[in-house]
Amino acid sequence: MSATMLSRRLVHRASQLKVLSRSSSSSANAVTPIPASPSPVANQAPNYPTTWSTNQRPRAVAQSGPRFEQTILELQPNPLSAMEMVNNEPIRVVHGRKAVCDGGGGPLGHPKIFINLDKPGARPCGYCGLRFEQAPHDH
Length: 139
Prior knowledge:
Strand content: 5-15%
Shape: elongated
């Protein structure tokens, strides 16, 4: 095949592609997106109804803009609030002056830390939020 025949074929293919792209971008074939109706009540999480930080926007407002294409909140994932899940965990009672927390789960945990329990009340782990308290003792 000669170079002139090849260049003719390429020009012919290019003109076919232009025709196809014009027909696909015509207004007759254009699909208009249906605007989603905003949900009147949208919890931040299934187990936490409001925002928990001063700089956090409500869920219905937070997921707007070009980054979020899916605006129907019922179809989006709605993860549980980690704060509420940690609060539901029971306080671990320790019979010494210090607690040790590594997050559990072996390699899926966090670095081992020691929590001082000299002051009264529950003390949270700085990594995972689990709470530890010194067992009451008689002096």
